[in-house]
């Protein structure tokens, strides 16, 4: 036991060193690529606002990543790379958190290899340090679940950390709040142990702690915005009718993620279409993707081997679980996703109860985690590859579980097989990273246009500017730029000319809309490029 503890800690130190070097490389590469994704510019602008430099903001988006980035911004480190570095630190914490979480089921060696394996999957690499909130929110989710497990098995005080991490996850990315279902399910599976552990004083303190944090957060939003934005986002996810086909990623295929998961797991290079669609589904998957999925499916199936017993035929919990499971399948995509999530969760908990604890708790938690996010994002009409990132932890987990169960006769065999898979993944990862390591052409042209406009008019601060990429030019010009997108205006029966007149814009920067003319404006700048063409219009 002592040797295993020492090994666990030694591998933890080694993992921190390796992941720090690996992340530093990714941050350097991201600084070469730059920023291209819309929301990341919003996080940069909010970081400026929290650093008391307002160039325009959207406080309806989750604030945690911007709040963390605002700290070095206040110290004068105002750049895109700062956001990449903050994301990088959170990525290291994610890898470490996965290692510790996997240790709840697997050996330190398997957990070590597994956490590194996760970090090299193609979709993970694509978004690891971009400044997007997907990986940072996942970091807090992993630690929230880990501290929940520690709270039940070690000390009640860990629940304070668990709930704090849950709130951090939620306010980094609102949909990540669904990790709370997994946390509560773990407590329900151990309700007898939980009852023995708690007392009225502990529960009261934890409840007051939760109320206090929620009151501060809710009060801040109501004071600043007179509304609570995540409630409207919750309703948006619940209702497909609130999402327009104008949205990038609009796709009504309910099996989108299941269909394209091989492309997201491993690929030797990113598709040339990526810069247009912001998706990696056009990548060519490697054979390793299918190996991962086969092993994962084996790991999931073998997790339920304790349920397949004759005595369960007359077990009420088992019968009810089967009935609810059938209802879940029948009503899938025909009723609210919340209804499906509830049925799915209850079904798994009933299966656990009927198995007389023969299903490993970590296995059930991972199945629940994977299912919850697949259901959530399959319902939503906007399908973006990065949304499914939370499922990559359970996928990696069940890949290891499949290897471990298939090769149970020899204790060393699982580690050998997993190491071989990692060795195969490393050159795939290297090739993929190499394919994305180049400046983003859209960002490059936008920076050039912004620099030209600043030199052209040294009184820019006195005029209103608009663009179809307003958030990008707000960042580049360090001045609020209105976002005016022609295709969105058309959907609302508005015209670009009327909108520009309303906001009294002296300049309009066309970065993606390919306008040929605007009444009352003339072109003063063009980069003369068919692809990534930029035009700057000035009011007559």
Q: Give the radius of gyration.
A: 25 Å
- Tell me the series of helices and strands, N- to C-terminal: HHHHHHHHHHHHHHHHHHHHHEHEHHEEE
For the record, give the distance between the C-alpha atoms at the N and C termini, rounded to a whole number: 79 Å
Unreliable stretches (pLDDT < 50, length at least 5) are none
- Strand adjacency order, main sheet: 2-1-3-5-4
Q: Summarize model confidence as the mean pLDDT.
A: 87
Q: Which structural class fits the helix and strand makeup?
A: mainly alpha
How would you characterize this protein structure?
There is one protein chain. This protein is mainly alpha-helical and 540 residues long. Helix content is 64%, strand content 4%. It contains 24 helices and five strands. It has helices spanning 2-33, 38-50, 64-74, 80-102, 108-119, 122-127, 134-153, 158-170, 179-189, 191-197, 200-225, 229-238, 256-265, 274-277, 287-303, 316-331, 337-354, 361-379, 392-406, 413-436, 441-456, 470-477, 486-491, 496-503, and strands at residues 464-467, 482-483, 505-510, 521-526, 535-539. A five-stranded mixed β-sheet has the order 2-1-3-5-4, sandwiched between helices. Helix 5 (108-119) packs parallel to helix 20 (413-436) and helix 18 packs antiparallel against helix 19 (392-406). It starts with a helix and ends with a strand.
